Amino acid sequence: MDPITHTFTGAALAAAGLRRATPLATAALILGANSPDVDALSYFGDGFWSLAFRRGWTHGVLALSLWPFALTGLLLLWDRVVRRRQNPHAAAARAGPLLAVAALAVLTHPFLDWLNNYGMRWLMPFDGTWFYGDALYIVDPWVWLTLGGILFVRYSNHRSSLVTWALFWALASILVLTDPDRVTWLARVLWVAALAAIVTMRLRRDRIVRNDATLDHAAAAAAGMVAVYIAAMAGASASARVQVHAMLADRGIADIEHVMVAPTPANPFVGKVVAATPDSYYIGRWQWLAKPRLDLATQVLPRPSGEEYEAAARAQDAQHYLSWSRFPVAEVERVQAGGNGEDSGYVVRFSDARYHGEGGIRGPTVRLDRNLELR
């Protein structure tokens, strides 16, 4: 999931009462919820190396067991060297509770990342297998609205915080309201209505909220609502996969190896379908509220094979991309010798069927000579 979702998750846990576990608990929750994403530094690497590295070492079982101790150590050091030197009368942070909340926050990160169709490698560095929840889109505005809404109501006491929140809601609304191709009119109406309700709640906060515990309970309720939403989306995706498999079999499509029903932006009732057979990918659209529920595209994508593909797959960028790709696609183009002295050969363009027809993360373009050697 995106960094905003991870940050809101840690902050909501703090707002629900865990901030009282120990001094610096809020810092541990927010930092822990984001810590595995330190691998984002791999974006500064060459080519497609970041795809092969991300959601691996820093997200796997070994790192997950070490992150809480590393964060606790750093925060205890900060507490001793900076915080209590500035305020000698401040209560000291306690190692046990700090470790507990840090561990909880760290575990939320790979779980949230697993929910989308990008994938997560739980078993790294021992096993590089990708796991996919196919439940939430990588940016889910309803999670933003639920967790961000209660955080806005609670933490907007100063003019600077109000300005920051206003900017966030404006930018988030631009994302939701200005993408009619992917976000339905109903989702946009619901977004405006829900945001208006949140703003009204903030304006009337002093009349509604009796004490601090009320806001704690509201934050816990918001986290619970998100948990129910996640469970419902995961269950719906699993049910849709079973139904897609059966519907394809009824249409005479046999030997189905894998089915993906991936979430779409802001619409929990629609999903993108990719079904893999030994030699093809079938692309379609799943709609819970329409008949027929499965709408298959006329184009069937061939799974990559052949000596041109195998030769191009030896390129380093291709290896990195393919180590991440879930449904790899390779478009092979024969290039004839040109009058400018250019030799004949092949151009192989890599992509992934998950993003067919919508841009997404495109792979490398590899050029081969007529002897299938890398240029």
Report on the structure:
- The longest helix is centred in the middle third of the chain and has 39 residues, at about 210-250.
- This protein is an alpha+beta fold.
- The chain has a 4-stranded antiparallel β-sheet, with helices on one face. The chain has a 3-stranded antiparallel β-sheet with strand order 5-6-7.
- The chain has 3 domains: about 1-135, no CATH class; about 135-305, no CATH class; about 305-370.
- It starts with a helix and ends in a 6-residue tail after the last strand.
- Helix 4 (about 60-85) packs across helix 5 (about 95-115).
- It is built from 12 helices and 7 strands.
A few lines on this structure:
The chain has 375 residues and is an alpha+beta fold. Helix content is 49%, strand content 15%.
Chain-averaged pLDDT: 92
- Into which percentage range does the β-strand content fall? 5-15%
> Tally of extended strands?
7
- Topology order in helix (H) and strand (E) letters: HHHHHHHHHHEEEEHHEEE
**Termini gap:** 37 Å
Can you lay out the helices and strands and say which pair or pack?
Layout: H1 3-15, H2 25-34, H3 49-53, H4 61-86, H5 95-114, H6 141-154, H7 159-177, H8 185-203, H9 205-208, H10 212-250, E1 258-264, E2 267-276, E3 280-287, E4 294-302, H11 307-312, H12 316-324, E5 328-335, E6 345-352, E7 365-369
Antiparallel strand pairs: 1-2, 2-3, 3-4, 5-6, 6-7
Helix pairs in contact: 1-2, 1-5, 1-6, 1-10, 2-4, 2-5, 4-5, 6-8, 6-10, 7-8
